[in-house]
Amino acid sequence: MGKIEAQTVKGFRDLMPVQAKRKSEIISRIKAVYEEFGFQPVETPALEYLEILLDEYGEENTKQIFKLKSPENQDVALRFDLTVPLARLVAQYYDLPKPFKRYQVASVWRADKPDPGRFREFTQFDVDVVGTSSQLAEAEVISAVVEALRRIDIGDFVVKVNSRRVLNAVINYAGIPYDQGKDVFRVLDKLNKIGLENVKLELSRGRYDVSGDFIPGLGLNSQSISRIEDYLSLPKGERKTVISELASLLGDQSAVELVRLDEFLTVLGMTSEIVSYDPTIARGLDYYTGPVFEVVLKDKTQFGSIAGGGRYDGLVKRFTDVEVPAVGFSIGVDRLLSAIESKLSADSVVDVVVTVMDRDRLPDYLTIANHLRKSGQFKVDLYLGEEKSLRKQLQYADRVGAKIALIAGSDEFQKGTVTIKDLRKGKAESKEISDREGWLKKTREIQVEVPRNQAIPTILTILKTNG
Amino acid sequence: MGKIEAQTVKGFRDLMPVQAKRKSEIISRIKAVYEEFGFQPVETPALEYLEILLDEYGEENTKQIFKLKSPENQDVALRFDLTVPLARLVAQYYDLPKPFKRYQVASVWRADKPDPGRFREFTQFDVDVVGTSSQLAEAEVISAVVEALRRIDIGDFVVKVNSRRVLNAVINYAGIPYDQGKDVFRVLDKLNKIGLENVKLELSRGRYDVSGDFIPGLGLNSQSISRIEDYLSLPKGERKTVISELASLLGDQSAVELVRLDEFLTVLGMTSEIVSYDPTIARGLDYYTGPVFEVVLKDKTQFGSIAGGGRYDGLVKRFTDVEVPAVGFSIGVDRLLSAIESKLSADSVVDVVVTVMDRDRLPDYLTIANHLRKSGQFKVDLYLGEEKSLRKQLQYADRVGAKIALIAGSDEFQKGTVTIKDLRKGKAESKEISDREGWLKKTREIQVEVPRNQAIPTILTILKTNG
Questions:
Q1: Which of A24, A36, A274, A400 to mutate to test the interface with B (most CBs of B within 10 A)?
Q2: CB contact under 8 A, A380 and B41
Q3: For residues A390 and A412, is the Cβ–Cβ distance under 8 A?
Q4: What number does CATH give the domain A17-185+233-340?
């Protein structure tokens, strides 16, 4: 039989220890913030009935859904986000105390074309408030996300805010049929990338991009385009000013919710540096009905939006006759992980490797490792391999990122001692040593032989001094 | 359009906040122990190429696999355990430092017939050591699992140990063809449930079960059955004694690994109460090659095995020409969750609910909530709903399990004060109050009006005294 090739499915990946540790650290920091804000965890299954995930026209929409059959031969699918399953859950457990504030962190799956940094399985960390149309809820989810991103120390970011109601009013103001709105929003979304002139070309007759490909235009008339240009030419800068100009331009009530949101955000100390109005933000998902949000990193725009959300007042209604307003925000944990890579320390989880010098004494090494672990003070790895040489075992200790090696040969066992070697100091100093004498001297400094019952305090001291 | 029914797929379920919190607590305690033992996290994808999950004959084996198509129209499937993906990972990243000690906690999927308490998506928490045939590795994974189960306080449990090598030697000793082994093990597995006489019937001509259904027998001859009976009649009790009887019965080297394992376990203080030899343990999965383990709860045998594992030296070889010995142990988190339900506290994540009395002052309530959160000392839920009555908001606070309510109306705002209400004390004492006067008196004890800048110390005091 030919060997089976060991490979991950296209668009999927493994996270090795350093990344897995970073991811776990990101998640636990976000989780702590969301709990401080009073959100409670729920878990929904990976699979849902397909009809639950399709849009209101029973179509796949923009999401590429992984479909399969249940054992009962029903159409089921892997969830593509955590918001639709939440809407299903709220309809199913209708007597939940409301407002229901939940967080969930879990994988979602999309059968998109994979790109570097774009995977078909990724982790979302969502917060939502279901059962209130109060704008306090918007302020709270934005505030929770801002605090979470600060807590993981991701660098400067900005929360861009817009509103579907405003965008619909713009479409109306520009005399464009409602159905064409989605196409217009998709073009506006490119403004920061391609500039106003190209946006205008895509709204009218189309244009050639840098590669020479023709991008067909939407064929809007010049009056419509000029009105969209009015909208895009609103002053940048202070949130309050932009929103007030917006309200006078559109002459309707669509900006009211942004005015109120601005007031709450201002109370929370969120300046226009942190939360800014952006006329181009629309969000891809069809279910949004009110304010929409998107977070980008100021110095790392190449990562795209690292979080997004908005108000979706109609989603629960698909399952029940009652209107259940809701608002949520989702952080893309994998994008954060890529963006943060260099910043977040992925410290070893191993403090001490207990090496095995004398294979007849395996029970003694077990006892030593067990004793260190029982102290509850360190992470202890007993060398479980079959290499007999100390050098190779120290290489192993190095590869797992251990800080200290504990060494005991027959000599030490006879005397009732152990040798404790400071691996970090050893590494730092070995660079400065050129001769054998220097090496011997340094060796004495980076390792110390102590009575077995002194092992724990000795290790503690080394970890503290060099830590 | 008809409404879509809000329901989970058959065999799948939601975890609501209390259970989700318990599960998260179980996972974080196990994780802490595994890190103390020097295991490092990895994450593998939910989907693998189907051929990777099939057994060496390209068959599905006993696992019911959820299959689907990748966007490239290849056969892929949801993982049914975390061990096969680990073997794939080790073959794919062959230069990993070895022994490679990893942990992973994640969902797995099986298209089994769902039962009460048996779901098609469940969470496994695995530890494995890959790249060593040392029996220290067996001792370490058992020791890590024992410590993890102690840490979550699951009650009395026993780790049952056997060995595939011993079982194969028993088959050989009984003169049974190797191919029939799996069927024999499946019958032995029922010993504790159906007793020796029924086991013997199933090994020979078959039997009628209590419902009157006929269970066909394996048709073994009486000499084979009598030799299996010899094996099953080994003395119970002290691990050392059983294993030594076993070695003399089988007269071969198959028990050597159990002798060595016993020695290590004894050093670690694991008596036969905690780790015992059980002749019937075989484990369902085909890939085991050496010692096998299974954990059952002493007082809750109805939960079946809550953890299982063993040595699987051939699994990585399916992907590569090199033999990579390995051993692992998997905890079934959902079974633990069911078993532990009543024991593990699922304390509220909410300390304080800030109620909203005067809707014109929403920014002030936001400021108060924000101020409490900034202290970093409590979990604070600002009431985001639209109910105006205090009674209804306090009911909400009750339902989310909050300990304290903060109340401020126009009165308090004018005086610069807030009222802090101790909800737990209130609940306890309201049972003892029968008249209005008593109620008024108690009210004064369970709530206190303090200057706004005294809110934090007041809340801290209440949380400490009452909690």
A1: A36
A2: no
A3: no
A4: 3.30.930.10
